[in-house]
Amino acid sequence: MTTLRLILGDQLTESISSLRDINDQDVVLMCEVKEEATYVKHHKKKMIFIFSAMRHFAEVLKRKVIKVYYTKLDDPHNTGNFTDEVARHLIKLKCDALIVTEPGEMRVKIAMQTWSEKFGLKVDIRPDDRFLCSHQMFIDWAKGKKQFRMEFFYREMRRKYHILMDDNGPVGGRWNYDSDNRNSPKAGLRIPEPYQVKPDAITQDVIELVEYHFPEHFGDHEAFHYGVTRPQALNALTDFIENRLLNFGDYQDAMLTEEPWMYHAHISMYLNVGLLTPNECIKAAQKAYYKNDAPLNAVEGFIRQILGWREFIRGIYWLTMPGYKTQNYLSAKRKLPELYWTGKTKMNCLSQCVKSTKQHAYAHHIQRLMVLGNFALIAGIAPKYVNEWFLIVYIDAFEWVELPNVSGMILFADGGLLGSKPYAASGSYINKMSDYCKGCDYIVSKKNGKDACPFNYLYWDFLARNHDKLSNNPRVAMMYRTYSRMSPEKQAAIESDAKHFFELLYKNQA
Length: 510
Ligand code: DLZ
Ligand code: SF4
Known about the structure:
This protein is 49% helix and 5% strand. With 510 residues, the chain is mainly α. The model has no long low-confidence stretch (mean pLDDT 97). Bound molecules: ligand DLZ and iron/sulfur cluster. The site of iron/sulfur cluster has 14 residues, from helix 15, helix 19 and helix 20.
């Protein structure tokens, strides 16, 4: 009896459920398929990362004397999608069973659910227990709740896994130190060099392959520097714990020109393809706290992202799909402006963030949320386009993590299921948290007129446009009161500045 075990590009973990009871007769299939690379046109560096990590992972399995069948993208027999590659190998290798770990995307799961009937054999779709919250645990937690708030979920996870807990409750007496994590960037901050890896021969091959087959995809392929193996991913984690965690909390929301990495961890890509596990990242940070190597606001903030937010987002995805994908509570309709691809705009904040995205397939949390996301929210860009863009451009983006972050957290497209208010902000927030405004053609302190910062009047225009949907929200009520106290002339100026701005925006002149 031969069992085929399929490993997907984001399942590169030796202890994954689909490999757990593997025996000598079994075979592993991994395939680079055109459908995954093109259903959205992923950033070149994202594809290089995934294909190279897949090829390295196949070598690791082979060294453990596991039989691995690996279809390269340019293999003449490659059928181009998971279903047909599985079918081809089931026949070729005379397999009578198929085992796979559930995928990270509904689209792929739906395909997998047809396989048993299609292939006429038993298909064992196993839970992905690399996550710390199972589907059932999340369903139980969510039961009876109309709104889901990460904070309460996170506390349960802290208790369940006994992370940063002592006999009296949370270490330090508080669950959440976010309010300590909002320092503006100071001039002269010394940001450590990020952990970077020189591409080896496998990665070089993949770079050429991606450049040859997907030249029109977004993003630079030059200077690829991400790790592609588990030891390299572990090095990146250690590098963060030793060199950046200390300041991670204080400057978590800070942005500086030409500094894409700041004190962030840049390990999300490794976590999301399975080269690191959530548990080991959490434990490494907790250990640094107990050794007095890092303060509590930094350690708690980092752990919250992984034990809290990441698990929460994944829970929301599987609880609410497929309906979540088409939600558009604010009826946002605008197309995605060209500047998201070109970075060509007079708005320096957006230009800086697109630049980093294009170069590295990476931008940090606050750049994504408060610059690129905030602009999409207040400009009223349709969730469909914003989601597609985020899924394409970020190296760590898989649908389970991208969709609730973008539709829920950034765009309020779920009407408040996930967050209590839209994260809309004017230019003063960006000015406080970055040095971008100094180098901008627009003037952040100006509220109206041709040279005023567009975030200023777009913020009010957004609130005015969405009055019916948002004015009852207690967390934005105060802003509506401020708006209602503005003179009719001021309100008209906001509307006319916004109208004029949108004309320029879609002529690529903003
Ligand atoms: C993102 C991606 C890409 C670009 N290519 C492949 C591939 O060729 N083969 C593969 O197994 N996985 C790939 N992936 C990751 C899958 O899209 C991902 O596993 C599903 O979306 C489920 O999360
Ligand atoms: Fe961005 Fe406005 Fe600042 Fe320019 S002035 S960088 S548009 S926030």
